[in-house]
């Protein structure tokens, strides 16, 4: 017989009042078991008119204040976030048969935080942040290659590539976090945390 938590869910849901602690537990499992990019997530944003778009990005940090990823601020996602900070994230770990869905609002990280992460990236990635006008149309691939070479010539010292002003991180501060486990015959197990007015969390079971 499978072990259960106090709510009758699989023991992997634990018995925690803090969703960030449960996220940490599941994320650590994913890092051990997911073959590629356990930090990959689907990021959903929308224009101010409510037209949605979704793409995969990589989680680069998290704490009790939210979940962080980095991008060109003038990309499609960056422009949508400036217009409409409401967003959603979805992690799907096929190896564990688990999902985590997060809803919240995005705000830009502090410059110091962005600088520290940018400086930890590989040289080619830092050059790419300068060379690529993300989401803009290219005449041809050669245009991008020439731009990469231009910035390699400009920043030849691999230890001294400044962060572009148009490149930074966004932090999603959640208002709800849902944990999902695949179940037999599509009788899945779902646990949702919702932020309260006093910044606490309530838990509820959801029907599959």
Account of the 3D structure:
This protein is of the alpha+beta class. It has a domain at 11-119 and 171-206: Electron Transport, Fmn-binding Protein, Chain A (Pnp Oxidase, Chain A, Roll), CATH 2.30.110. The protein is 27% helix and 34% strand. The chain is built from five helices and nine strands. Strands 1, 2, 3, 4, 5, 6, 7, 8 and 9 form a nine-stranded antiparallel beta sheet that branches. β5 and β6 (98-108) form a beta hairpin. α4 (123-131) packs across α5 (141-154). The longest helix is centred in the first third of the chain and has 15 residues, at 19-33.
Share of helix among residues?
25-40%
Measured between the Cα atoms of the first and last residue, the distance is 21 Å
At the fourth CATH level, what is the homologous superfamily of the domain at 11-119 and 171-206? Answer: Electron Transport, Fmn-binding Protein, Chain A
Spans where pLDDT lies below 50 across 5 or more residues: none
What is CATH's topology name of the domain at 11-119 and 171-206?
Answer: Pnp Oxidase, Chain A
User: How much of the polypeptide forms β-strand, as a percent range?
Assistant: 25-35%
CATH second-level architecture of the domain at 11-119 and 171-206: Roll
Radius of gyration, in angstroms, nearest whole number:
20 Å
Give the overall average pLDDT.
96
Query: How many strands?
Result: 9
């Amino acid at each position: 017989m499978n072990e259960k938590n106090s709510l009758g869910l699989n023991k992997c849901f634990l018995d925690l009042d803090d969703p960030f602690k449960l996220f940490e537990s599941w994320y650590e499992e994913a890092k051990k078991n997911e073959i590629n990019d356990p930090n990959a997530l689907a990021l959903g944003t929308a224009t101010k008119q409510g037209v949605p778009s979704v793409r995969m990005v990589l989680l680069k940090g998290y704490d009790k204040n939210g979940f962080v990823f980095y991008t060109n601020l003038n990309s499609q996602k960056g422009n949508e976030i400036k217009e409409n900070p409401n967003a959603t994230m979805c992690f799907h770990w096929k190896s564990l048969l688990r999902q985590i869905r997060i809803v919240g609002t995005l705000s830009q990280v502090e410059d110091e935080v962005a600088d520290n992460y940018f400086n930890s990236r590989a040289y080619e990635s830092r050059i790419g942040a300068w060379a690529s006008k993300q989401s803009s149309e290219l005449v041809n691939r050669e245009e991008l290659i020439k731009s990469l070479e231009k910035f390699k010539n400009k920043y030849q010292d691999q230890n001294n590539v400044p962060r572009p002003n148009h490149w930074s991180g966004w932090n999603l501060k959640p208002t709800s976090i849902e944990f999902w486990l695949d179940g037999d015959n599509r009788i899945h197990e779902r646990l949702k945390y919702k932020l309260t007015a006093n910044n606490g969390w309530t838990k509820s079971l959801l029907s599959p």
